[in-house]
Prior knowledge:
Elements: H1 3-17, E1 21-24, H2 25-31, E2 40-46, H3 50-59, E3 62-67, E4 71-76, E5 83-89, H4 91-99, E6 102-107, E7 110-114, H5 117-130, H6 135-146, H7 153-162, H8 166-175
Helix pairs in contact: 5-6, 5-7
Amino acid sequence: MDFARVFDRVAGHLEAGGFPLAVVGGLALHAHGITRATFDLDLVTEAAAQTGLIGFLENEGYQTLHRSAAYSNHLHADPARGRLDLIYVDPETSRRLFSGCRPRLALGARTALVPRPEHLVAMKVQAIRNDRTRALQDLADVLSLLRLPEVDRTEARGYFERAGLTEEWDEVRRRL
Protein backbone atom coordinates (compact mmCIF):
# COMPACT_ATOMS: atom_id res chain seq x y z
CA MET A 1 0.00 0.00 0.00
CA ASP A 2 1.21 3.47 -0.85
CA PHE A 3 0.50 4.99 2.58
CA ALA A 4 1.74 8.47 1.63
CA ARG A 5 -0.41 8.68 -1.50
CA VAL A 6 -3.58 7.48 0.22
CA PHE A 7 -3.00 9.70 3.25
CA ASP A 8 -2.45 12.71 1.00
CA ARG A 9 -5.75 12.15 -0.83
CA VAL A 10 -7.78 11.66 2.36
CA ALA A 11 -6.04 14.53 4.17
CA GLY A 12 -6.69 16.87 1.24
CA HIS A 13 -10.39 16.00 1.26
CA LEU A 14 -10.75 16.43 5.02
CA GLU A 15 -8.75 19.66 5.12
CA ALA A 16 -11.01 21.14 2.43
CA GLY A 17 -13.95 20.42 4.75
CA GLY A 18 -12.21 21.78 7.84
CA PHE A 19 -11.98 18.41 9.57
CA PRO A 20 -9.02 17.22 11.63
CA LEU A 21 -7.26 13.96 10.86
CA ALA A 22 -4.77 11.76 12.71
CA VAL A 23 -3.08 8.46 12.00
CA VAL A 24 -3.80 5.63 14.43
CA GLY A 25 -3.15 1.87 14.35
CA GLY A 26 0.14 0.37 13.25
CA LEU A 27 1.56 3.56 11.73
CA ALA A 28 0.83 5.51 14.92
CA LEU A 29 2.64 2.83 16.91
CA HIS A 30 5.58 3.21 14.51
CA ALA A 31 5.57 6.98 15.11
CA HIS A 32 6.01 6.21 18.83
CA GLY A 33 8.91 3.85 18.12
CA ILE A 34 6.93 0.59 18.19
CA THR A 35 7.31 -1.35 14.98
CA ARG A 36 4.98 -4.07 13.82
CA ALA A 37 3.70 -5.11 10.43
CA THR A 38 0.68 -3.25 9.13
CA PHE A 39 -1.05 -3.49 5.79
CA ASP A 40 -3.81 -0.91 6.17
CA LEU A 41 -4.13 2.76 6.99
CA ASP A 42 -6.04 3.54 10.18
CA LEU A 43 -7.29 7.10 10.60
CA VAL A 44 -9.44 9.08 13.02
CA THR A 45 -11.53 12.16 12.27
CA GLU A 46 -14.74 13.80 13.44
CA ALA A 47 -18.08 12.04 13.07
CA ALA A 48 -19.46 14.98 11.08
CA ALA A 49 -16.99 14.14 8.30
CA GLN A 50 -18.26 10.58 7.80
CA THR A 51 -20.88 10.96 5.06
CA GLY A 52 -18.77 13.22 2.87
CA LEU A 53 -15.65 11.14 3.41
CA ILE A 54 -17.35 7.88 2.51
CA GLY A 55 -18.78 9.48 -0.62
CA PHE A 56 -15.30 10.74 -1.53
CA LEU A 57 -13.76 7.30 -0.98
CA GLU A 58 -16.42 5.58 -3.05
CA ASN A 59 -15.83 8.10 -5.86
CA GLU A 60 -12.14 7.20 -5.59
CA GLY A 61 -13.05 3.55 -6.23
CA TYR A 62 -13.11 2.22 -2.66
CA GLN A 63 -15.72 -0.33 -1.68
CA THR A 64 -17.31 0.30 1.71
CA LEU A 65 -17.06 -2.98 3.62
CA HIS A 66 -18.66 -1.78 6.85
CA ARG A 67 -20.22 1.40 8.15
CA SER A 68 -21.49 2.27 11.61
CA ALA A 69 -21.73 5.54 13.51
CA ALA A 70 -18.19 5.17 14.89
CA TYR A 71 -16.33 3.14 12.23
CA SER A 72 -16.05 2.43 8.55
CA ASN A 73 -13.81 0.10 6.55
CA HIS A 74 -12.94 0.50 2.86
CA LEU A 75 -11.04 -1.55 0.32
CA HIS A 76 -9.70 -0.59 -3.09
CA ALA A 77 -9.07 -3.14 -5.86
CA ASP A 78 -5.70 -1.47 -6.52
CA PRO A 79 -3.26 -2.83 -3.88
CA ALA A 80 -1.43 0.53 -3.90
CA ARG A 81 -4.59 2.11 -2.50
CA GLY A 82 -5.32 -0.82 -0.18
CA ARG A 83 -7.52 -0.85 2.87
CA LEU A 84 -8.63 2.09 4.99
CA ASP A 85 -10.10 1.78 8.47
CA LEU A 86 -11.67 4.93 9.87
CA ILE A 87 -12.74 5.90 13.36
CA TYR A 88 -15.22 8.75 13.81
CA VAL A 89 -15.37 10.62 17.13
CA ASP A 90 -17.91 12.97 18.67
CA PRO A 91 -17.08 16.67 19.18
CA GLU A 92 -15.98 16.33 22.83
CA THR A 93 -13.75 13.33 22.12
CA SER A 94 -12.41 15.18 19.08
CA ARG A 95 -11.46 18.17 21.21
CA ARG A 96 -9.61 16.01 23.76
CA LEU A 97 -8.00 13.75 21.17
CA PHE A 98 -6.78 16.34 18.69
CA SER A 99 -5.55 18.75 21.36
CA GLY A 100 -3.04 16.06 22.35
CA CYS A 101 -1.99 15.07 18.82
CA ARG A 102 1.45 15.99 17.56
CA PRO A 103 2.94 15.96 14.05
CA ARG A 104 5.07 12.82 14.35
CA LEU A 105 4.84 10.82 11.14
CA ALA A 106 6.21 11.81 7.74
CA LEU A 107 4.03 10.47 4.94
CA GLY A 108 5.35 11.81 1.66
CA ALA A 109 5.14 15.59 1.60
CA ARG A 110 2.83 15.65 4.65
CA THR A 111 3.49 15.16 8.33
CA ALA A 112 0.60 13.34 9.97
CA LEU A 113 -0.75 14.04 13.41
CA VAL A 114 -0.48 11.14 15.85
CA PRO A 115 -2.41 10.87 19.15
CA ARG A 116 -0.78 10.57 22.56
CA PRO A 117 0.02 6.97 23.57
CA GLU A 118 -2.72 7.08 26.20
CA HIS A 119 -5.31 7.91 23.54
CA LEU A 120 -4.06 5.04 21.39
CA VAL A 121 -4.53 2.80 24.44
CA ALA A 122 -8.09 4.11 24.78
CA MET A 123 -8.80 3.19 21.14
CA LYS A 124 -7.35 -0.29 21.63
CA VAL A 125 -9.48 -0.77 24.74
CA GLN A 126 -12.63 0.21 22.83
CA ALA A 127 -11.70 -2.17 20.02
CA ILE A 128 -11.31 -5.03 22.52
CA ARG A 129 -14.60 -4.16 24.22
CA ASN A 130 -16.37 -4.16 20.84
CA ASP A 131 -14.72 -7.32 19.50
CA ARG A 132 -13.11 -9.74 21.95
CA THR A 133 -11.39 -11.62 19.12
CA ARG A 134 -9.03 -8.63 18.82
CA ALA A 135 -7.80 -8.93 22.40
CA LEU A 136 -4.49 -10.74 21.82
CA GLN A 137 -3.12 -8.36 19.18
CA ASP A 138 -4.53 -5.22 20.77
CA LEU A 139 -3.27 -6.11 24.25
CA ALA A 140 0.20 -6.69 22.79
CA ASP A 141 0.05 -3.17 21.34
CA VAL A 142 -1.19 -1.79 24.66
CA LEU A 143 1.74 -3.41 26.47
CA SER A 144 4.17 -1.82 24.03
CA LEU A 145 2.55 1.60 24.48
CA LEU A 146 2.54 1.31 28.28
CA ARG A 147 6.27 0.58 28.24
CA LEU A 148 6.98 4.01 26.76
CA PRO A 149 8.56 6.22 29.43
CA GLU A 150 6.15 9.17 29.06
CA VAL A 151 2.90 7.19 29.38
CA ASP A 152 0.49 7.95 32.20
CA ARG A 153 -0.47 4.45 33.34
CA THR A 154 -3.13 5.79 35.69
CA GLU A 155 -4.92 7.39 32.76
CA ALA A 156 -4.58 4.15 30.78
CA ARG A 157 -6.02 2.14 33.67
CA GLY A 158 -9.04 4.46 33.70
CA TYR A 159 -9.84 3.57 30.09
CA PHE A 160 -9.86 -0.13 30.99
CA GLU A 161 -12.05 0.49 34.04
CA ARG A 162 -14.60 2.61 32.13
CA ALA A 163 -14.83 -0.11 29.48
CA GLY A 164 -15.45 -2.81 32.12
CA LEU A 165 -12.15 -4.52 31.32
CA THR A 166 -10.53 -4.56 34.76
CA GLU A 167 -9.43 -8.20 34.38
CA GLU A 168 -7.62 -7.29 31.18
CA TRP A 169 -5.96 -4.35 32.95
CA ASP A 170 -4.81 -6.66 35.75
CA GLU A 171 -3.27 -8.98 33.13
CA VAL A 172 -1.54 -6.08 31.38
CA ARG A 173 -0.20 -4.78 34.69
CA ARG A 174 1.19 -8.23 35.57
CA ARG A 175 3.04 -8.33 32.24
CA LEU A 176 4.59 -4.87 32.53
